[in-house]
Each structure stands twice: as structure tokens, then as C-alpha cells.
């Protein structure tokens, strides 16, 4: 499968589900046991603002490969028909880019790298 032929918004759709699952598991493993606590804590990781900040930090830390940066740029620049809620359009596009990166890594079978990126996020 050639990832470059898949719409970045489709990759973001997949990446969003994968990322959310990893965050939920991480929070449960960290000892959060009440649904309200889990939901409040999850927002620190899964909101568009948070995801945009994590992506910015990864870029500053030079964590991403050239190929991964190409995916991020491609996804960030894709026209979306959704309007962001509770964040700026720039934050929304960066969050979409992070999710697309996760989705692309999953489809390419690069789960170790995908987990490395998600682990970087939860350690921040």
C-alpha cells in the first residue's frame, strides 16, 4: 500500500482512533480509575491544542525523520471542510498532521516507531 495515495484526512481518522486508545490505556495504567478523572486527564493529550503543542515540540526536538516531516506537512496542508472547535485553525491542522502521521505509521507496519512517538508524548 502506498501511503502517499491515501488522503491524509483518512490517515488522521485512523490515527485519531489509535492515539486515543493508547492514551486511554496509558492513563488506566497510571492509576486513573474513575471515568471523570480519565476524561479530564485525557484532554491534556487528545485535545487539538495539546496535539499541536506535542507536534511543535517534536519538531523542535528534531524527533521526526524527513519522511515523517513530509507526511506532517502534507497532512497539515490538506484542505478540511471541518471547522475547529475550541482551537485555532493552525492548531487544528497541526493536530490533524500528528494524527495522520500516527495513522500512516500504523498502515506502513511501523508500529515500533508509532509507539516511540506516542511514548515521547506521554512523557512530556
Structure description:
The protein starts with 7 loop residues before the first helix and ends with a helix. It is globular and about 40 Å long. The relative contact order is 0.21. The protein has helices at 8-29, 35-46, 48-60, 66-76, 89-107, 111-122. It has a single domain (3-122), classed as Orthogonal Bundle (Ribonuclease iii, N-terminal Endonuclease Domain, Chain A), CATH 1.10.1520.10. The protein is mostly helical.
Set down the secondary structure blueprint.
Layout: H1 8-29, H2 35-46, H3 48-60, H4 66-76, H5 89-107, H6 111-122
Helix pairs in contact: 1-2, 1-5, 2-3, 3-5, 4-5, 5-6
Main features:
single chain, 124 residues, mainly alpha, Ribonuclease iii, N-terminal Endonuclease Domain, Chain A, 6 helices, 72% helix, globular
Quick summary of this structure?
The protein is 72% helix and 0% strand. The chain is mostly helical and 124 residues long.
N/C terminus separation: 33 Å
Give the radius of gyration.
14 Å
Multimer state: single chain
CATH superfamily: Ribonuclease III domain
H/I helix tally: 6
CATH topology name, in short, is Ribonuclease iii, N-terminal Endonuclease Domain, Chain A
| Derived structural class | mainly alpha
Give start-end ranges of low-pLDDT stretches: none
Order of secondary-structure elements: HHHHHH
Taking the sheet with the most strands, its summary is:
none
The level-1 CATH class: Mainly Alpha
CATH architecture: Orthogonal Bundle
Strand content: under 5%
Shape: globular
What is the number of independent domains? Answer: 1
The helix content, as a percent range, equals over 70%
- Overall residue-averaged pLDDT value: 94
What is the number of strand segments? 0
